[in-house]
Every structure is written in structure tokens, then in C-alpha cells.
Structures
1.
Amino acid sequence: MGTKFIPMNHLAPSLSGYRGTRAELLLALKKEQPLTARQLAERFGLTPNALRRHLEALEADGVVRHRREVRGVGGPVYEYSLTDVGEALFPRAYGPALTTALEALCDRHGVDSVVTLFRRQWDAVAEQAKPRLSHLPLAGRAQLVAELLSTQGYMAESERVSEGVATLREHNCAIRAVAERFPEVCAAEARFLADVLGAAVERHGRIVDGCNACEYRVSEE
């Protein structure tokens, strides 16, 4: 049976009980934090008071925090971002237990053994996806791969830049704990993307380096 692709916006109901506007607020902050209350109100078409009620509830839950920011002339603004608890709402496919197991594997066989493990996983995903991608232009391939990555918790999306050029962004790192300990696995992910897309792939940002997304520029070879 083939891989089932699910668009990123289907992820909202899975945020540990958060639904509707509050789930969407969490998703917006995950993608572009920090955001001001005014920016969020404009995006969601809410009045400041209505938005504030949602943000206050999320702060009370400990998943969102704000800081006071002075920007030139005028009064201060309040910027909102996710707390560590809020970040933990998003899928993490590999937790501390697996990281510990990978540490043991690395101690015995070296870091290359960890990279090989992830390469094998990505190779299996690529082989399953390639038949659906072979007849599509690059923009279509990037879109389907983004949907595939989203089913695995990466909150991915693609954007067509020009003919033969696209951007692929992952707003959540499902292997963050592993990537922080073994940054070499990020190279395995880039290799997978180049293979499955049949394109040149350049990384322009990583979540583990403090960026809001892992971003790749994809272009026809």
C-alpha cells in the first residue's frame, strides 16, 4: 500500500487537545515566532480583545510566553513565542530513550553507524515515494515530499520560486534531540531530499541552529 500524504493544515487537531483558533495560534508561532499581538490579530481576523483572551489562556497553560519590546517611537509592543512546554506539543519522533541507544551505537561503532541508520530509513521512504513523483515537475515533487514529511511530524511546506526552483521548509524537527547530538544526520536528510526529488539541494537554515525552520533551496540539476 502506498504512502498516504496529508497536508500540513491537518496537523492542527493533533496538538494535545488544542483545537480551532488556539491550535492555529500555536502553529503560527511555531512557524514564525516571535509574533506581536497585532500581527496575530491581523492574520486571524480577530479583534485585539478576542485575541488577547486566547493568548492569555495559552499563557496560563504554560505553552506561550510574551516579552515587552520597545521599537523606536511609541509605546512598547508584546512579542509572543512558544515556551519549552509549547515546543514539546509538536511531534518528536525520537525521544531520549532512542538518543541514549544511539549514543551506545556510536560508542561501539562510531558516528558513521548512526548516520547509516538514518540513511537506510530515508532510503526506504524515498523508494516508496519515487513512483508517485517521477511524472511531476519540480514544484509538484516538492509539494508531495512536503506532505510526506508532514505525515512524519515535520510540519513541512513547499513554495515555487521560479521555473525549476522551489523552497522546502520544515517548521518542526521530529528528530531534534538526535540532530542536536548527531548533527551529521542532517546531512543524511539533505541527501534523501536530493535523491527523492532528483534535484540539487542546498540547506539555508536549521532549527537546531536557532532558525524557525529547516529550509532547503531545491533546483533542477
2.
Amino acid sequence: MPRSIFPALAGILALCALGSLQAGAGKAKDVPKGAEKAVAAVREAFPKADIDEAVEPKGFGGSGGKGAPLYWTVRFHTGEKKQELSVTPEGDIIRLPVPIEAKELPKAVADALAKAARDEAIKSAEKNEMRATLKYVALDKARVQHYAVDVSKDGKTTRFVVSPDGKSAKATDIRPEKKADKPAKELDIPVKAGKAVAAIKALFPDAVVKQITHEVFDGGTGELEILTYEIEFVTKGTEREMVASPEGVIPHLWAPAKDLPKAVTEALDKAAPGAKVESARAFEIRASLRFGALETPKVYYTVEAEKNGASRTLKFKADGEPIRAFEFPKK
């Protein structure tokens, strides 16, 4: 079963994508550092528009002042109509909605709409292009989150988890590795998981895959997006588990640490004076979660229908299939 880590993403994107508001032109604000490409993308898509501001989103997508946000909210206006778009720092518009007339809907969508809203008035329609999706993007250089160092003293081995700056050094339990026999046959690898498995086998050439699950999110297009594959495998008599993206990017892993930073060794000297370092590993962050451009935009349509003063929004794939919010199984 797929597991979701972003079940509400579709709703978030719907709120931060495009909205028509009643207001006049406001004074344009300076473009914040890092938002230049996002603003340029909006200017290219809407050459007659005036840019009002570019801001980091609050909550999901924002960096909290600690780096680059997942996207910028670019607000602009054309005449009296105000709009806003979510655009990545690289200049990719995440979702581009284009207002259309109901008569411009594809036949498959028009037929599906006729069945779904037989006696309702059509107030508006939009063609939506999802141009980017969440994915793990490799960092230029791996970042160590913490070290796990096994030290021995007086015949006893202790494991310390130490921060790179040495300000935190805590003793923790040493959990035994899970031993396992090499499976007689490897799991049949799904084609879509091929790059993820290949990335792990590049690190563990003798790995034999036992099981593959995946984590997904609902981007609102009617298709669940796979964020990572969780791969269980056996290597050198030990059962392990790692994750990798469909593109073959490994977000994080434990790697041997040959040379410990001075701050780490000094922290160990204080925490366990006179102890000998037996082994050390570094938990490396090798990728960050970003919105990446899709090779081909995913198109879907939204229609606002009204009856007796009550309105509702219907969504359809390009082939006319209705789009409903995916309900993930409750644990």
C-alpha cells in the first residue's frame, strides 16, 4: 500500500496558486533576494501585468528565514484583476490556470460535465497546467546532520551521537544489526523503481531486494505522485532499508566517517575521557525536497457550477475522468 506524507498538498497548492480578487492596483514592492527568477517567469507569462510583490509562503513551502523557500508567492495585477502564482526559485510556475469558455472544454470533459452537472449553471472554467512536482534534488555537497561514534573504555563499548559542531554528545543504545539469509530469488523490480534500486546497488553491489514500498502525495491532478521508494534488501548477511527517489536520488544515508572534525573529537574527549574510537559513521543529507519542473505538464480542468445559489467546483482529467480527493487509508 502506498503511504502518504503530503495528503493535503493538493489543497495547499489550490490555495496558493491563482485567485481572482476585487482590488485596485497597489504599490509594487522590491523583489526579495532569491525571487528574481520567479518574478521573471510571471512577467514572461503575463507581459501586461504589474508585479505587486513576491513573498515566502507561511507554513508549508516557507523556509522560515533559514534558506530558500520551496516556492515564492508572486502577486500581480492586470487592470483591476489581482492574481497570484506559486513559482519556484528556479522560475518554474507550479500550476498555471488559464480561464476558458465552457465551449472550449475538450469534448470528453464537456460530456462528463453534462452528466455530473445536468441542471446546474456553469459559472466559469479553467484549464490547469501542473508544471512542477515535488521531488528530491541532489545537493551540490552532502551535509552531515550528526555522527554516530562507537568508543570503548574498560572493556565496554558505548555509542555517542554527536552534532557536527560538537555542542551535543549523547550516549545511546547500540542496536544489533538484523541478520538475514540471502533470499533465494530477488523481488521482481517494477520498471518505475528501476533507478531507485540501481542507486542503492551502486552502494551495495551484492544487495538482494526483498520488498519495495513507496511514499506518495496527492498533487491534485488525479494521479498520485511517488516521492520515494522504500527498499528492503539483504547485503553481507544483514537486512537493511533505504529510500531513493524515482529519479535515483538517495536523500540521506549512513556513510563511514574516516576523519572526524576536531569539534567532534573534543566533544568525545569530554563525554568519555580516555576512550578509544572503534568506528564512526556520518548521517549525510544528500538531497533536499524541492519542486522540480515536469518534462510534460499535466493538464486538468476545473469548472464552477451553480444551482439555487449554491456553487461547487468540479475537476476533470483531460480524458473526462472526474478528479476526487484521494482518501488515504486510516491507520
3.
Amino acid sequence: MIRLSMRLGFWGLLGALGFVAAIISLAGFLGELVWWLEILSHFRVQYALCFLLLAMIFAAGRKTRPAAGALALTLVNALPVLFFRLPPAPPPSNASPVFRAMLINVNSHSGNPAAVGAIIASSRPDILVLEEISDRWLHALAPALESYPYRKAAPRHDNFGIGLFSRHPIESSRIVPFGMVDIPSVFAECRIGLQRLAVVATHPMPPGNAMLAAERNRHLDWMAREITSLSGPVLLLGDLNTTPWSPVYRRFAQNSGLRDSAQGRSIRPTWPAPLPLLWIPLDHVMHSPGIAIHDHLVGPDAGSDHLPVRVDFSLAPSP
């Protein structure tokens, strides 16, 4: 009797935990209604793995109905992730030479300038975006940035300094502030190879409360309108503080017409670097249809809470 009671207690507790997890994961699909529900949408991979584990445990215990329910929830959470992994279009055979772009959120307060400088030196991107930079960071990275004669930067003492650095000529550029604290974004037109490329660097507010979430959403809506007014191929790099499973992200992608360079590849999370169990992809390189992605890599660790993103790309020939 004692053994039976303990067994019932174990399965009851496991069922209760599964029920709570189901409510949390399904609530994430309602992210457009309440700001904190949108945060729950970011952990689809974790939810799918948890429910798969539950399904296996229930199946091993011959608990057919709970196993079937856990398996169904595995599929519900895995499908958005699997859809994101649909194969991308192959690069055109007549595309331009391959170039490299890199995004590094350095972490303004606790980042490691030596590690960031080493990554820049080893990766040698043609286009580099640094986020959370200050005058102190620019001074510390001066040796690594010597080979980038073209640049547009707006250093700050908070978490929203930003800079665009290029090995190729920047023919025009502007810093555009947005929102309640004038967060800067960089808009530039680069001459890369024989073509022009619009490059945008941005870093919206993190959705830490209802007001900040609304500010992040307004920032992304504004950015989508700005991007649709640009001509030619567009490359956007930024910590967007949202993930591909979020309705906020999907609205931005639809309104801007941009595609995530990670799409069709394995899920490569970028934050929080020290906590692998919570990893989600917050840092993005997005592009217009006139750009072909050859490779998308995350890392190595730059001493920040974010991992760098590196993308190899080519431009479709001008008509």
C-alpha cells in the first residue's frame, strides 16, 4: 500500500507539473494580448524538449493518455521551430563575391574588450555592428577597428550605444534617434563590390515591463516603415529583443519584408550566454530578397551576455 501510494503521488505530481507547463506554453501564443505573455513565446525549444521528456516518462510508465497529451504538446511547440527551419533558397550561381557581416553586443558594463577585439581580428567581417558601445569601448577597441576606415557611431554611457564599421566605402549615413530616450539607429548606404547596399543597425528596448514592451513594439513598427522606404538590397543587424516565435517578431518581418538569415538552419541562440538552459535567439541579421545567405554562425563567446552573429552573404546582380 505504501509503495502504491508513493507511485500515485509521483504520477500525480508529474501530471500537475505537465499541466502547469502546458498552460505556460500555450499562453505564449496569446502574446499580442499582454506584454508578459509575449515573453513566454520565446521558449518554444525548451517547451518542446520538456514535453518530449514527459511523453517518454509517461510512456515508460504505461500512462497512455498523459503520454499522448505530452506528445501533442511537443508537436504544438515544435512546429513553429520546425517551420522556421524550412530550407532557404540556394544562393544564385551568378551572385556577387561573398562578403561577411558581424553583429556583436559587447555588454556595456561587464564585457571583455580583449575578447571582442580578438573575434573581430579573427573573423575579419566586411561590415561590423557593435552594440552597447561607449567612448571607453571605442578607445579599447581602437587597434581592432583600425582596418575599418568607414564608420558611423553613436557611443553612449547606457546600454544603447551603437556603431557601424565598414571596410567598404559608406556613401551616406545618418543616426536616427527614436523613442523616449532617443535610442540611436544607424542607416547607411555602402558601396560593396560593384553594388550599393543599405545597412541598418538598431537595438530596441528590452520588454522588461508593459511600458518598455510597448516602446520596443513601436520601435520595431517604426523600423519596418523606414526599411520599406529604402531602395535596393537591405541588411539589418541588431539585438531586436524578440525571437522568431514571437508575434511581435512575425509582425516586424512581415511589415519590413525582411527574412532572418538564420532561417532554414539549425536554431542558434545568442542570449543569455552564461545560462544555456534559457538560450534564445535575440540577436538577428535580417535581409531583403536581393541578398543570398551562404552561412550563418553564432559565437564564439565574446565575454558578453550575448553571443556574436556572423553571416556570409552575396548580392544578387543588378538588373
